[in-house]
Amino acid sequence: MKKIIVLYHSKTGFTQRYAEWIAEDLGCECRPIKGVKLEDLQDYGFVIYGAGVYAGMIAGAGKIKNWMGKASEKTWIVFATGATPSKEGHEELVFQTNFRKRESRPAHFYYFLSGINYEKMGFFDRLLMRVFAEAASRRAGVDRATALTSVNRCSRDATAELLRYVRLKAG
Ligand SMILES: Cc1cc2nc3c(=O)[nH]c(=O)nc-3n(C[C@H](O)[C@H](O)[C@H](O)COP(=O)(O)O)c2cc1C
Q: Is residue 8 within 8 Å of 16, Cβ to Cβ?
């Protein structure tokens, strides 16, 4: 069995939650990517990386692509968390935007619905979201207060496919 590790980058806790659920279900290690070097991953054959989507971009995707290129013997899985409900083709769009054709790509990519947490957001992110919310309320008639309310739509069940894939490939 290949040794598995879950790494994550999480600003407001949604990705951390998913990462911890996945690691708990796989019985493997789980760590924030901050401070981790590629050399630290020598013992692991299977690396799962998760992060939030910010303005369409997966946080830390550049670093992961660099690592995937340097350690292509490992199996890399990436998951992204975002507040946009996954309609037909959404997961594919996030994947194609972040992992271009000639770039290193993970063996599998997953998108998990999360939410918005204004309380844990940093100052600049909150400012940005306020601007988005203003625009959304004007465009779509969404009540401004609703647009600025924290929401958590994480679901542990969403990880089932990822777990199935990893168990099959790492086992
Ligand atoms: C400034 C900002 C931009 C965001 N942009 C997007 C986006 O483009 N698409 C999306 O689905 N969610 C977007 N979100 C929501 C986050 O992706 C979501 O809250 C994510 O789960 C955050 O993960 P984290 O708290 O683990 O970092 C954005 C949130 C913030 C604060």
A: yes
Domains of the chain, CATH where assigned: 4-114+153-170 (3.40.50.360), 118-151 (no CATH)
Residues whose beta carbon lies within 6 Å of some atom of ligand 1: 10-16, 52-56, 81-84, 114-116, 121, 125, 128-129
> Which of 54, 98, 132 to mutate for ligand 1's pocket (most ligand atoms within 8 Å of CB)?
54
Do 44 and 3 contact (CB within 8 A), yes or no? yes
**Spacing, Cα 132 to ligand 1 middle (Å):** 12
Query: Residue 171's pLDDT is what?
Result: 75
- At residue 165, the pLDDT reads 96
> Residue 19 pLDDT > 90, yes or no?
yes
- Cβ proximity of 33 and 44 under 8 Å: no
